[in-house]
Design a protein that fits this description.
This protein has 284 residues and is α/β, with parallel strands linked by helices. It has ten helices and eleven strands. The structure holds NADPH dihydro-nicotinamide-adenine-dinucleotide phosphate. Residues 141, 164-167, 169-171, 188-192, 195, 208-211, 229-232, 262-263, 266 line the site of NADPH dihydro-nicotinamide-adenine-dinucleotide phosphate (NDP).
């Protein structure tokens, strides 16, 4: 069996086209959707991500305000910038690029983002709403994974889903989303016993580990849907996911590639969340 590839590029293009059309309507009605991004320090990967967000905003008709702050910015200074953006009615979404330098507590900073502007969905309020089934901003990566899964036509209801990874930004919200879709969810992590066997039972397998080739072909159940969140460099320097793609694609029914998969959908979902924040601000 050769899996059908879940085309993140095509799906993301569709999402962004929808956002662009709606943003145009909002602008015509006098609301100019705006995303503010705070970047502290000069982490090269973060700089690339932020530049990507800037391009996405331009493509979607969303204004972007990029605040690039020096690496020695204090937590108090960062909180001050956040308070200003929180009070600015012209800013609809606020995102703090992670990771932050060591002198800043990321939890303290994230909690300072007003929930209605928290387009990353990382604040305790939005996380709590997600877990309790209330309307919220869903973190962009899991939201993208779910949209990719839904694009296959496969319903998660009643299916065995395994999420490998339990981070606050990917694994935990992914598990919550699948549970809300009535899947039977197992979350695996570095202390899990029998991880390979659990994965091999999964009808839906989401890999968010951060290790190239972690999910081998033997760990994929025939006919499974496999979503690869990982972004890694292979020993040869090539961008790759957590899944050993070729053998996994021989067994899965659906599989997302890296590159061309979750990363692009994550970016598209940020645009969608920002548009939603702008729409919500109009209704207040
Ligand atoms: P974290 O490092 O925060 O979490 C990794 C998770 O994997 C942890 O829960 C950890 O377990 C688990 N893990 C690590 N090693 C093992 C192991 N040997 N066996 C089982 N579990 C293990 O990473 P993130 O969740 O932030 O990201 C995961 C991957 O996804 C990374 O490659 C990252 O670059 C990528 N990513 C991609 C995005 C995209 O847009 N495509 C967005 C965000 C992330 P434990 O909790 O026990 O330590």
């Amino acid at each position: 069996m050769a899996a059908q590839i879940i085309d993140g590029k095509a799906l993301a293009a569709r999402v962004k086209a929808e956002v662009r059309a709606e943003a145009e309507q909002l602008r015509a009605a006098g609301t100019y959707p705006c995303l503010a991004v705070l970047l502290v320090g000069d982490d090269p990967a973060s700089a690339v991500y932020v530049a990507g967000k800037e391009r996405d905003c331009a493509e979607c008709g969303i204004e972007s305000r990029m605040l690039r702050l020096p690496a020695d910015t204090t937590q108090a200074q960062l909180l001050c910038h956040l308070a200003r953006l929180a009070a600015d009615d012209g800013v609809h979404g606020i995102l703090v690029q992670l990771p932050l330098p060591a002198q800043i507590d990321p939890q303290r900073v994230i909690a300072a983002i007003p929930p209605q502007k928290d387009v990353d969905g990382f604040t305790p309020v939005n996380m709590g709403r997600l877990l309790t089934g209330q309307p919220c901003f869903v973190p962009c990566t899991p939201a993208g994974c779910l949209a990719m899964l839904q694009s296959t036509g496969l319903s998660p209801a009643g299916r065995r889903a395994v999420v490998v990874g339990r981070s606050n930004i990917v694994g935990k919200p992914m598990a919550a989303l699948l549970l809300a879709q009535d899947a039977t969810v197992t979350v695996c992590h570095s202390k899990t016993q029998g991880l390979a066997e659990l994965c091999a039972e999964a009808e839906i397998l989401v890999a968010a580990v951060g290790r190239a080739g972690f999910i081998t072909g033997e760990m994929v159940r025939p006919g499974a849907a496999v979503i690869d969140v990982g972004i890694n460099r292979s020993p040869g320097g090539r961008l790759c996911g957590d899944v050993d793609f070729a053998p996994a694609a021989q067994k899965a029914a659906f599989i997302s590639p890296v590159p061309g998969g979750v990363g692009l959908m994550t970016r598209a979902m940020l645009m969608k969340n920002t548009l939603r924040a702008a729409r919500m601000a109009r209704q207040v």
